[in-house]
């Protein structure tokens, strides 16, 4: 079953240095969807155990299975327009509407 449009939860504003968690979920897709977050139209990298994430100064953890995007300490650089995309390899992937977070 192709995924439906996911529901994204993105705070409209956040204080610098606080923890922010965004969520993305859709329930129709079978097999279960994987989720990809975007900021300002650019796919966010998944943080892995390699040095590339640290080199890129990534301050978040993205879980493709659960759809969560967690910032341990947000910075002004994290301000932007966020959306996520659900895909499970069947039918078209679905995106939620873009939401802006101001830090």
From TrEMBL:
It is a single-pass type I membrane protein. InterPro entries: Ig-like_dom, Ig-like_dom_sf, Ig-like_fold, Ig_sub, Ig_sub2, JAM2. Residues 3-103 form the Ig-like domain. Transmembrane segments: none annotated. It holds the Pfam family Ig_3. PROSITE patterns: IG_LIKE. GO terms for biological process: leukocyte cell-cell adhesion. Its main location: other. Keywords: Cell junction, Cell membrane, Disulfide bond, Immunoglobulin domain, Membrane, Signal, Tight junction, Transmembrane, Transmembrane helix. SMART domains: IG (SM00409), IGc2 (SM00408). It comes from the Eukaryota. GO terms for cellular component: bicellular tight junction; cell surface; plasma membrane; protein complex involved in cell adhesion. It is found in: Cell junction, Tight junction; Cell membrane. Belongs to the immunoglobulin superfamily. This is JAM2 protein. It comes from Urocynchramus pylzowi.
């Amino acid at each position: 079953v192709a995924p439906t449009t996911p529901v994204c939860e993105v705070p409209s504003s956040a204080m610098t240095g606080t923890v922010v968690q965004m969520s993305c979920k859709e329930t129709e897709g079978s097999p279960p969807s994987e989720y990809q977050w975007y900021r300002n139209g650019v796919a966010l990298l998944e943080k892995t155990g390699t040095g590339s994430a640290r080199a890129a100064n990534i301050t978040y953890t993205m879980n493709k299975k659960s759809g969560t995007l967690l910032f341990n300490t947000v910075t002004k650089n994290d301000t932007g327009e966020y959306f996520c995309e659900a895909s499970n390899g069947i039918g078209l992937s679905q995106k939620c509407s873009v939401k802006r977070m101001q830090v």
